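agent> Task received from the user: take the single chain below, predict its 3D structure, and emit structure tokens. No templates, no multimer pairing.
agent> Plan: (1) validate residues, (2) run structure prediction, (3) serialize to tokens, (4) report one or two observations.
agent> Step 1 OK, no nonstandard residues flagged.
tool_call: predict_structure(input=
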Amino acid sequence: MQTPAFPSHAPAGLTLKAISSMATRQVLTELAEAYEATTGVHLALESVGGVDAAKRVQAGEVFDIVFLASDAIDKLLAAGHLAAGSRVDLVHSGVAVAVKEGAAAPDISSGAAVRAAVLAAPTLSYSTGPSGVALAKLFERWGIANEIQSRIVQAPPGVPVGTLVAQGEVALGFQQLSELIHVKGIRIVGPLPADIQITTTFSAGLGAHSSQAAAVHAMLDYMASPQAHAAKLRQGMEPA
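)
tool_result: status=success, residues=240
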């Protein structure tokens, strides 16, 4: 990975406190480590369920940087929890389908095929985040929400759907690819087909009460730069 060339605008040894949803944990960790190696600025990142992360920021917990889905960032900006005009889009993340390692892979080549796979699955699961909300709406549009309701296993906030799949609790799992690629014991069938793909943009914002605005902006400049593209692709995401 190319070394960051951005000035940190901060003394070496500075720590920036951040919170993110689980979906971006891996890519942010990789980028932060590369940035720290050159600038000495450390990112103390806590990754939790996106809903819980937003609630903590709304409750007044102070963070230098908040990394969440763009719609959640916009809500925090509107409420004054993040500094006005500080949103930086970082990655686009798509949803993939997984089954337990060794299990037969269903056909997911089209929306119709995915619908059939969902109807055939004895159990299925999706996240509590933006992709899960979008999937629930998709099932409603397909007219199958009531039929499959009893078979849905809701993953607790912060618990990867892939973990439930690997443990055999769920036959068919839907989650962002970035959250599936590091889970052992599963088979990633592939991304959702283009006609029903769900893409979430993840963004960052400067905490309204951060005293390290210049250092935050410098780090985010690096994370949004072409130098960060390779890491994003490695982690199953597309640069924003």
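agent> Step 4: summary for the user.
The longest helix spans residues 25-39.
agent> Done.
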